[in-house]
């Protein structure tokens, strides 16, 4: 399926605040569950189509997994999504630039091996391993083989292992035996941008005009005659339809129940489009100990059998380093507690940049997406053999319940533009239902 053109994705994204307020004040026709990017996009699209909605959010903020906060480190820190990926096909690049945000391409990548910076031959060996892995995945993708990358890739040397770690736990949040080759093949490529001040903050500004009922957790959605009954911890309301943007992790854990229970194929699709394990450990320093370069990426490994690791160092020149951990290691560090996770990251950074890193360390924080009750993970990763279940999640349930979120977008999963596209798609589906009943 071809990717939508940038022009079509951008068409009509701006919605006048007055139009949003009128749609939120009109008789409720649609209940939108969750004010992340998907829910905000759905609400904007409903308002554009003059359809009355109520947008309910369990948290005390909007944005969902797009969240920038400054309390932990004293500077903006994206606890959730950080990059605008596939920049050539990402409407948020134009949207945020139009709103005055500064976007920056990530700086250089450096490789550290066995106590020293890698030379040109070693960097070339890693690049060659990554190229081989890309070709292996592409061959499987072209053949339509929805198999685990681990079946296709042998980590026979250290560079093959590092390449596999980058593609698997360090990017997808799962080991290679849980990474679908077809899923990777179908993702758009292209450059990436960081957003000064935080992507979460920028997206919160983009969605700020949308009327949202915060601190309102939806507990059950029941199909009733003529529509749905949405029950919350603050009461219930009825509507013709509901758009549900909760993650597959939340739905699989029963954080939001359906009556009657979801039938096939949605029930199994929710289980098969599981959440990956991905966390960040951020370290802040009170003096210059990280060098002069800004927004550069460190890849490292101590010994050929050591666990590869990665940091984003000095984003936008801030004295901050952010470790990214995924898969089994992220669950292990999460279980050990925030202090242990910070110590793990500080040990690795000090081994690379020297002991002055320890003397300058001021504070740290670690994310906990895998145990967050409103997400149960950072982003989705379809189980190999079940990539097609993403499209099944986008099919209307009983003609009145519509799922949205990055997990429902086969070709834009895990990224914010996928959440955007899914919210708009669900709103269009609902519009056809509502207009048929007016």
In the CATH scheme, the class of the largest domain would be: Alpha Beta
Q: How many helical stretches? A: 16
Tell me the strand percentage band.
Answer: 15-25%
Number of domains: 2
CATH fold topology of the largest domain: FAD/NAD(P)-binding domain
Radius of gyration: 22 Å
User: What spatial order of strands do you see in the largest sheet?
Assistant: 8-7-17-18-19-16-20
- Approximate shape: globular
What is the correct CATH architecture of the largest domain? 3-Layer(bba) Sandwich
Q: Low-confidence parts, pLDDT < 50 over ≥5 residues?
A: 1-12
Count of DSSP strands: 22
Euclidean distance between termini CA atoms: 33 Å
Average pLDDT, rounded to a whole number, is: 95
Largest sheet: 7 strands, mixed
- SS-based class: alpha+beta
CATH 4th-level superfamily of the largest domain: FAD/NAD(P)-binding domain
Helix content: 25-40%
């Amino acid at each position: 399926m071809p990717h939508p053109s940038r022009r079509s994705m951008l068409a009509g994204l701006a919605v006048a605040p007055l139009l949003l307020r009128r749609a939120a004040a009109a008789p409720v026709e649609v209940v939108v569950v969750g004010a992340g990017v998907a829910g905000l996009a759905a609400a904007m699209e409903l308002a554009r189509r003059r359809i009355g909605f109520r947008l309910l959010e369990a948290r005390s903020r909007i944005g969902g997994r797009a969240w920038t906060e400054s309390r932990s480190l004293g500077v903006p820190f994206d606890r959730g999504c950080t990059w605008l990926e596939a920049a050539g096909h990402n409407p948020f690049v134009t949207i945020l630039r139009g709103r005055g945000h500064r976007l920056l391409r990530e700086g250089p990548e450096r490789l550290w091996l066995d106590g020293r910076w890698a030379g040109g031959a070693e960097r070339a060996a890693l690049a060659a391993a990554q190229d081989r892995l890309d070709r292996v995945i592409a061959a499987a993708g072209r053949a339509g083989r929805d198999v685990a990358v681990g079946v296709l890739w042998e980590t026979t040397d250290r560079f093959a292992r590092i390449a596999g770690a980058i593609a698997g736990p360090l990017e997808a949040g799962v080991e290679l035996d849980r990474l679908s080759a077809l899923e990777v093949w179908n993702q758009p490529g292209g450059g990436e941008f960081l957003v000064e001040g935080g992507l979460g903050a920028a997206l919160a500004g983009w969605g700020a005009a949308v009327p949202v009922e915060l601190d309102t957790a939806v507990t059950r959605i029941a199909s009733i005659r003529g529509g749905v009954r949405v029950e919350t911890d603050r009461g219930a309301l009825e509507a013709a339809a509901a758009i549900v943007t909760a993650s597959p992790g939340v739905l699989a854990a029963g954080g939001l129940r359906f009556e009657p229970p979801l039938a096939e194929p949605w029930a199994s699709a929710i289980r098969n489009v599981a959440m990956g394990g991905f966390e960040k450990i951020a370290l802040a320093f009170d003096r210059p100990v990280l060098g002069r370069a800004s927004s550069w990426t460190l890849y490292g490994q101590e010994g050929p059998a050591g666990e590869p690791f990665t940091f984003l160092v000095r984003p936008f020149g801030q004295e901050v380093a952010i470790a990214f951990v995924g898969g089994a290691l992220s669950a292990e560090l999460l279980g050990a507690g925030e202090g242990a996770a910070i110590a793990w990251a500080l040990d690795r950074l000090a081994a690379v940049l020297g002991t002055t890193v320890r003397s300058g360390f001021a504070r740290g924080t670690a994310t906990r997406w895998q145990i967050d009750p409103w997400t149960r993970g950072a982003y989705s990763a379809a189980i190999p053999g079940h990539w097609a279940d993403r499209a099944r999640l986008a099919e209307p349930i009983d003609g009145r319940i519509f799922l949205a979120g990055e997990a429902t977008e086969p070709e834009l999963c895990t990224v914010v533009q996928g959440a955007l596209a899914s919210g708009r798609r669900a709103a269009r589906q609902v519009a056809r239902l509502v207009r048929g009943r007016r």
